[in-house]
Amino acid sequence: MFIQIRTIVVHPGNAEQVAGRFGEAGHIDTMPGLIDRTVMVSRKNKDSEEVIAMIRWESEDAWKNWEKDPVHLAGHRENRGAETPSYLISSSVKMYDAKVVNAKEVTQA
Predict the structure, then answer these.
(1) Exposure b/e, 35-64, CB count within 10 A at least 16 = b
(2) Would you say the pTM of this structure is higher than 0.70?
């Protein structure tokens, strides 16, 4: 499993807006190899809020196919040169290879 974690730090009062954007259904949801997307918002503090988007893929190749997908690339092209939102403090992306996944076993009643 290949996991992308995107962390977005914003000024207070903006996390829900960012989370909404990352949580919207979109073309990514049609991509082969996508396992799921999780969007999390930190507990509020007075200085900043943090939004974490975790996207899990079956493999790094599945993620690479998303990265070079024409619809995905077009979306980035449209935003090229756009002004950075004033509420954004920082943004980072990290990639991980899952080594262990312990899923809770579901039993039928």
Answers:
(1) eebebeeeeeeeeebbbbbbbbbeeeebbe
(2) yes
Position 106 scores a pLDDT of 77
* Residue 19 scores a pLDDT above 90: yes
The answer to whether 86 touches 10, Cβ cutoff 8 Å, is no
42 to each of 7, 28, 53, 75, how far by Cα in Å? 11, 24, 11, 27
Q: How far apart are CA 3 and CA 5, in angstroms?
A: 6
What CATH number corresponds to the domain at position 41? 3.30.70.100
Range of the domain at 50: 2-97
Model confidence pLDDT, tens digit, residues 4-15 = 999 999 999 999
CB 44 within 8 Å of CB 10: no
Q: Is residue 38 part of a domain?
A: yes
Cβ atoms within 10 Å, residue 102: 5
Strands 2-10 and 88-97: antiparallel
